[in-house]
Design a protein that fits this description.
Elements (H helix, E strand, L loop, with lengths): L1 E6 L2 E3 L5 E9 L1 E12 L6 E7 L4 E3 L7 E6 L4 E6 L8 E13 L2 E9 L3 E5 L2
Parallel strand pairs: 2-11
Antiparallel strand pairs: 1-3, 3-8, 4-5, 4-9, 5-6, 7-8, 9-10, 9-11
Length: 124
């Protein structure tokens, strides 16, 4: 199937920038959609940004103009460039993917693969 691994989390001060990466591995034919989600203590997991195979992006209002999602179909990676970070951005960030898996003539669409999460803390 598919395994996702995030990297790039850490501690930053308000106003600084951070770049998250996520790499997919496994029996992958293609990644059809990517998403970045986050979950703060005591809150539900929320969508931060998403991008599909056609390059269409979607962002939650609170990060528009500050965060940018991008993907690399050859490397099977997705990135989240975060700038002008705020304390409210503090959360565990998770990578999510929908993928077509298989090889030869046998392929299957699979949904909602998740990474293990990476901690992002914004504090002065």
């Amino acid at each position: 199937q598919v395994q996702l691994v995030e990297s790039g989390g850490g501690l930053v001060q308000p106003g600084e920038s951070l770049r998250l990466s996520c790499t997919a591995s496994g029996n992958i034919f293609s990644i059809d959609a990517w998403g970045w989600y986050r979950q703060a203590p005591g809150k539900q997991r929320e969508l931060v940004a998403a991008i599909n195979s056609g390059g269409t992006t979607n962002y939650r209002d609170s990060v528009k103009g500050r965060f940018t999602i991008s993907s690399d179909s050859i490397k099977n990676m997705v990135y989240l460039q975060m700038s002008d970070m705020k304390p409210e951005d503090t959360a565990v960030y998770y990578c999510n993917a929908d993928a077509t898996i298989g090889s030869g003539g046998n392929y299957r669409r699979m949904y909602d693969f998740w990474g293990q999460g990476t901690q992002v803390t914004v504090s002065s």
